[in-house]
Amino acid sequence: MNISREDDEYEVIPVGPLKKLEERIEKLEKERETVSTHEFIREILDLIESNQKLVDEIVKANDELREELSKIPGKIDELLKAWREFIDLLKEAGVSESSGTEGSGISSDKLDELISLNKEMLEAIKSMKEKNEPVSYVRKYPKIRIRRSA
Question: Contact at 8 Å (CB) between 46 and 138?
């Protein structure tokens, strides 16, 4: 076997600096691993924070919903009262027509009252329909991807 000295170059260097470079490379690789761990922990903390904000919004929406639901029985009572008055007016009109009294059987005051009651019922129904709109401040969950290493 013939080794030619023209192609290869050799140099005598101390081994100490090479070992220091190897140690430094190993140290940098370990730091890179801990940085990814810190990033993962930071992502988890961000997830916890966004989850807490979401819980706070849900609690707020729940309180507002309870408040709105507590108003419904009063509105229903008003509506029932208006219907009863309407039915009473119809009964009076039927009784006065069947008894043969002169005129329309319902005075103009009663008709005005009937019209105003109908308007109140329409407003109550419209306000109840408006309350059925979906709550706009509830947001979707944030998109978070967690990478798992094997």
Answer: no
Q: What is the largest CA-CA distance in the chain?
A: 140
> Residue 75 corresponds to which tokens in the numbers above?
């509105």
Q: What is the pLDDT of residue 54?
A: 92
Angle at Cα 27 formed by Cα 26 and Cα 28, nearest 5°?
90
Q: pLDDT tens digits for 104-137?
A: 556 778 888 888 888 888 888 888 777 765 544 4
Q: Identify the burial level of 120 via C-beta atoms within 10 angstroms of its C-beta, where 0-12 means exposed, 13-18 middle and 19 or more buried.
A: middle
Q: Give the torsion sign (CA, 11, 16, 20, 22).
A: positive
DSSP label of 135: P
